[in-house]
Amino acid sequence: MINVGLGQAEGIDTLNTITSVLSQCEQQPILVHGNTLRNDQGDVIGNMAFITDMTEHKKALALAGEVQKSLLPQTKPNVHGLDIAGKNISCDEIGGDYYDYIWRRVDPHAPFSVIVGDIAGHGVDAALFMTTARSFLRMRASQPEKISDIVTDMNRHLTLDVFDAGRFMTLFYYELNQFSKGVKTDDDVTLVVIKLEH
């Protein structure tokens, strides 16, 4: 971080100093902010400008974005009779958007599920919450129970972690069970949907 201290009557010099420092930064991401300095009586005694090089911060966010994208489905599932696609386009490098497919590939008669979630907020905290929610949901969904039980347990678990922070998640959990033996009729397809909103 570069600190530029300036006296009260140095307004033109302030602009020249900041312009000079910015020209040295060229294509590097930077954060510029300033503050007015006051004495004990509240009189203005000067100004301080802060210029922070954000290069390492941007690299860390880019890496976090790559890790988060790796947690999303990398291939579309091959489920007989369904054409499935999904894509996540974040407005920031990282965030709280989430989707997933859950099905037991080894059991051709197992239900197929699609989960879409959204964590309140943006940035690192939402991304961390999303990762926690994803981990718990995948672990809990691997146990054969009704999705209402899975989502209730997930909600109970996450509430303990984030209640005081005021964080929450919107979740859509869709389960399709269309795999039965013999002739298919309308009665063979079971659709279960649970939707939680904030």
Notes on the structure:
It contains 4 helices and 7 strands. The chain has 198 residues and is an alpha+beta fold. It folds into 2 domains: 2-53, no CATH class; 74-196, 4-Layer Sandwich (Phosphatase 2c, domain 1), CATH 3.60.40.10. Strands 4-5-6-7 form a 4-stranded antiparallel β-sheet, covered by helices on one side. Helix 3 runs antiparallel to helix 4 (147-162).
Give a short overview.
Helix content is 33%, strand content 28%. The protein has 198 residues and is α+β, with helices and mostly antiparallel strands.
What is the CATH architecture assignment of the largest domain? 4-Layer Sandwich
Number of helices: 4
- Quick check: average pLDDT? 76
Can you write the helix and strand succession as a string?
EHEEHEEHHEE
Largest sheet: 4 strands, antiparallel
Instruction: Going across the biggest sheet, name each strand in turn.
Output: 4-5-6-7
Shape: elongated
Low-confidence stretches: 1-11
What is the CATH topology of the largest domain? Phosphatase 2c, domain 1
Radius of gyration: 26 Å
At the first level of CATH, the class of the largest domain is Alpha Beta
Overall helicity:
25-40%
Compute the separation of the termini in Å: 39 Å
**Which superfamily, in CATH terms, is the homologous superfamily of the largest domain?**
PPM-type phosphatase domain
